[in-house]
Amino acid sequence: METRRMLPRIAEHLTEKYGKLFSPEKIADVVNYSFATLDAQSKVKTHLFTTTEHFADQRLHALAISHGLIQGDKPRVLFVCPSNTGRSQIAAALMGRRTEGAVGTRSGGVNPGGHLHHRAVEVLQERGIDLSGMFPKPLDTDVHDAAEYVVAMGCLDQIEQRPDTTYIEWDIPLLAEKSVEEVREIVDLIERHVDEFTKELSTSARHAAA
After folding, report:
1. How far apart are the first and last CA of the chain?
2. Does the record's keyword annotation contain S-adenosyl-L-methionine (predicted)?
3. For residue range 24-37, what is the model confidence (pLDDT) as tens digits?
């Protein structure tokens, strides 16, 4: 009963934001698909409706960009790892902070897990980044289509590549069974990659504007 009540509310809320771009039926379809996807993979259902709205919002925004309905005004980077429970979430969070929102960052997993890696949450919390509202997401087609850059960690061969997208692979160790100190070292490594990649994006933007 709660599902029947909440999903139309989410669709109505997103229609206020995207109603000029998509029909109410299309928005409802995206919401229903997002809920079904997350419900099937999530081990914790506590915030399922909140995460459904967040995921549906991301998908609608990406769909609008990939269909040319809105113009993306900043570079769009999609970070991908097998489960989207650790490395790709960390990279997206670090780049978001590093660029202060000047780069559009998303993350996804080719086979998303049920919840974030607890040490990833712990170590980023130490650095002032709150991942408590984040959740593992699948490698969504619409988000993939909208990305200009896809950064893969341990799964590049599992990603169907688009001709107009730049694909990059980072060699980042798995977080599984690592101590908190080892996870801190992995986060340091990801941060170095993020810093270098951010500089490359900035250089590319300057050349494009010249």
Report:
1. 57
2. no
3. 999 999 999 999 99
Give pLDDT, residue 4.
78
Q: How many residues does the chain have?
A: 210
Judgement on whether residues 95 and 190 belong to the same structural domain of the protein: yes
Q: Count Cβ neighbours within 10 Å for each residue of 20-59 and write b for 16 or more, e otherwise.
A: eebeeeebbebbbebbebbeebbeeeeebbebbbbbbbbb
Question: Pick from 181, 208, 190, 172: which is nearest to 95 by CA?
Answer: 190
Identify the domain containing residue 5 by its residue range.
Answer: 1-72
Per-residue model confidence (pLDDT) at position 1: 60
- How far apart are alpha carbons 186 and 3 in whole angstroms? 39
C-alpha–C-alpha distance, residues 198 and 152, integer Å: 16
Domain end residue (candidates: 23, 49, 72): 72
Strand partners, 78: 106, 150
Domain total of the chain: 2
